[in-house]
Amino acid sequence: MEAELRRPPLSRRRRGPARIAALAMALAGPILAGACVPDAQDLILTQGQIDERTAFVSVAPAQAWVNAPGIRSVLQRNIRTGLEQRIGLVNDSAVPGDNVMMLRTRNGVSGFGRLRFESLLASFGGMPQPFGAVSSGDLIAAEDALGPYLWVSRDFGDTTCVLGMRRLNSGMRQLPGDGGVMDVVLRNCLRGTAQQALAPILAESIGIAPIARDGQGNSRLLSPLAAPSAALVAVPGAAR
């Protein structure tokens, strides 16, 4: 009888676990809310952030978009505005950094437009070595059969490094995918002249779409019928 008198009332016994459960939910609420409802800013990505999260895949050298000599590797990816390739070139120099061509297309853009130095290099991840201190005022304007291009060189003993860039449109040559414009950036260091180092970005290398390559990564045409028509290469503004 005394034991029964010392037992708390039924209502108090039921209220204790309920209070503990309510307290646990109150403490867990903010944690759960933070885990399940992300900040709206986390859901908004810039074009650059989207590109950074898009991985490159390796493709065969025969699928390179240009006929540059000495191709060693080709990486490619689809981005929201078009396609991108990074072509690794042979590098026999001791200058830090890789010899590389970076190419990016933009879909549905038919106009040539102005080539902007800073924005172009920013879209490819910044200035390659050893051109970190180069500004737009250092660039030399030149022209070949495909039109204008910009370049600058640096000498390291018997080695010449060049940074070259240009923009092509679909009237100059057939472009990959639905590209209306293709931007090209070259970093190339070799034992030779600046003109030799610039060869991968000049008209002879990028004026026509590649057909096939030998085991050393050099381009070759399979037959005369495989070459593009003269009209496609020589007449700006011609239909694709």
From TrEMBL:
Keywords: Signal. Residues 1-33 form the signal peptide. It comes from the Bacteria. The keyword Signal applies. This is Cellulose biosynthesis protein BcsN.
